[in-house]
Amino acid sequence: MTSPRRTFAIISHPDAGKTTLTEKLLYVGGAIHLAGEVKARGANRRARSDWMKIEQQRGISVTSSVMTFERDGITFNLLDTPGHEDFSEDTYRTLTAVDSAVMVIDAAKGIEPQTRKLFEVCRLRSVPIITFVNKVDREGRPPFELLDEIADVLALDVSPMNWPIGMGGEFEGVMDLATRRISRPEGDSRTFQGTVDEAPLSDRFAEEVELAEAGYAPFDGDAYRHGDLTPVYFGSALKDFGPAELISALAAHAPPPRPQPAEPAPVSPDDGEVTGFVFKVQANMDPQHRDRIAFMRLCSGTFKRGMKLTPTGHGKPIAVHSPILFFAQDREIADEAFPGDIIGIPNHGTLRVGDTLSERADVRFTGLPNFAPEILRRVALKDPTKTKQLRKALDDMAEEGVTQVFYPEIGSNWIIGVVGQLQLDVLISRLETEYKVAAALEPAPFDTARWVSAANPADLKAFTDLNRAAMAKDRDGNPVFLAKSAWEVGYVADRYPAVTFAATRER
């Protein structure tokens, strides 16, 4: 029997309309009762998934949120991912926890750099993609040009599922290619309010539809689920063209929970024992309670509230008494959960990103690495009496994957590593608002970092002894080589062939 679970992410370039689409999917799915209800109070008007202060200020999604809703007997777990280019690490980890994705493309801009980067992450894990070409009610590029770009740039077969009847000022609606029925815009705002007809098309649009059906692959469910074909929906999230069709497509075609890569063998959702992995840790979702939530993707078994699970991090079983289901910042206690579900586990630093939790201790999920930082900074504390608070804050955010912390072998200044510039702004903002720590970031004498290891411990010791001024430890005590440039990494690696310099590290 097919599982009634669909766990999916929405990926896009910034400003393609992902936040608006998220809201409309929740509205169509019955999770909210009024379009606009999930917008934050005040002039920022951010969707409910964007709850962190810096997100509301900047109008971008900084952290990944989870929203669960049900429709027609199917439970949808929607993981909202950061769209900003500086958040590839958190986004990557979120994409490890989904079984499919919706890719949002702006009809005027087509494939943008971040879209392509996120798509490649999906391809690495064979995550099937449904494409939503947004904003067809505005002036945009011709539909054929957009479809050909998706096919060429992403090396995918494309299968249009509907067709825009005009765009921008000529927009007359969207035709479902299977039923030939056209959803029409109504009223001054030109939104979809339920009017559907089968009125004949003008010669121009009839010819377009005929060419589209002849020129592109018919939809093939197996090819889609294998990641070889993307069904394409044209629409406007803002004007309500498309969200209902997307939910129906996810229900009908998106894969249920899939086997997950693990050692010693992949874990099937049909396995009886409960297993899952932590793909995200978030502190202070509720600033009043200094809480810390580990987001776990359940991979197998039926989870029951109160059961004991063993984390790979320290091997000591923990009882999960208050597991949480999410609607963005809102939450409710989960009495049970099934493969594909995302549950939150309150904890005080015992769980970290990459941890496997299971009823048995001999399984470990793979594919959740740390990435070598591209920017390094020293942290300068403005009030020296707050050293302890700073240490806790940096440890907390390192646990979440927002930053990495390196402790140099020589000198006392801690070094922060991030993948993108915006994470530095997030760090300073959260230090101030959540931890009441005033700090500044100063240039570090290094530009990047690599984890070092060697098959022979003597080779590693010889290297670290000769390069102590450039050596540090990460939070787990692993040796890290701090380099002044990517060129230096290559130069040193050539001089020490027995030492491995790794840009990623799995826990």
UniProtKB/TrEMBL annotation:
Alphabetized HAMAP family for the sequence: Rel_fac_3
Family assignment from sequence similarity: Belongs to the TRAFAC class translation factor GTPase superfamily. Classic translation factor GTPase family. PrfC subfamily.
Binding site for GTP: 12-19, 80-84, 134-137
Transmembrane segments: none
Source domain of life: Bacteria
Role, per record: Increases the formation of ribosomal termination complexes and stimulates activities of RF-1 and RF-2. It binds guanine nucleotides and has strong preference for UGA stop codons. It may interact directly with the ribosome. The stimulation of RF-1 and RF-2 is significantly reduced by GTP and GDP, but not by GMP.
Protein name in UniProt: Peptide chain release factor 3
InterPro entries, sorted: EF-G-like_DII, EFG_III/V, G_TR_CS, P-loop_NTPase, PrfC, RF3_C, RF3_dom_3_sf, RF3_GTP-bd
